[in-house]
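Training component of the fellowship. As part of building independent skills, the fellow (R.M.) carried out the full modelling exercise for a liganded target. The chosen ligand was zinc ion. The inputs are recorded below so that the supervisory panel can assess the work.
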Amino acid sequence: MPELPEVETSRRGIEPYLLDQKIKSITIRQHKLRWPVPKNLPELATGRVIRAVSRRAKYIYLELENGTIIIHLGMSGSLRICTDKTPAEKHDHIDIKVASNKVLRLRDPRKFGCVLWAKGDVGQHKLIKPLGPEPLADDFTAEYLHKKANNRQCSIKSLIMNSHIVVGVGNIYASEALYRAGINPKRRAGNISLPRLEKLVASIRLTLQLAIKEGGTTLRDFTGINGQPGYFSQKLLVYGRDGKTCSQCGEMIKQFTQHARSTFYCTVCQR
Ligand SMILES: [Zn+2]
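Fellow's submitted model of the complex:
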């Protein structure tokens, strides 16, 4: 599943081809994505200029003067830039063609992604409104997390993976950030001191920033045939490393299942 760093890399990859471009046409080959693609999307967006290509959580926004096209990649979606001469393949569901004749093409084999329209303030859209702060934004602080963790019985891992608390911290990045912060993923969220949460917030930011940086170096070419971001070949410290040794203390990395997701941690370094 594309995580926040992959989505941010996709956004950066497509932005130069779309920014300030007028939409010439929209082709919808498959309406049945996670939610139906609005039938009148071509009518609403054609002839409009893309004023910004932005991101909120794992949603990419194409901001037009009369509304916003919201794109989510779901489980298997990917975006690439091609031309209308590039034949569409089986899972290429949507094309957005701009004045330069470049085409933004959404491929989504499992069809869990979405392409929606929000008129007016996109922040009020029902998918967007309940979301917590961005992990890389200034409003995501240790004080904020401390307040949200207060009296909560859930584990710290499930707290930081809750998109109402903070968006975009997926399973891999949660494990990695907790390791960097030296916090046991099972620890009760309401039972962690402010200084330790400060370390955690910094670790979440660092983990995501490193992945975004890695994405930038591995994905220079967004016009390539596949345009498949996939997972970056970043160096993971604990995720997927069960049975291997911890780089800090030499102990074996352990794996266990937490809320149906795999968690990896070091029993010595994480308390
Ligand atoms: Zn260790």
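The panel noted the following from the submitted structure. Residues 163 and 216 are 25 Å apart (CA to CA). The longest helix spans residues 194-218.
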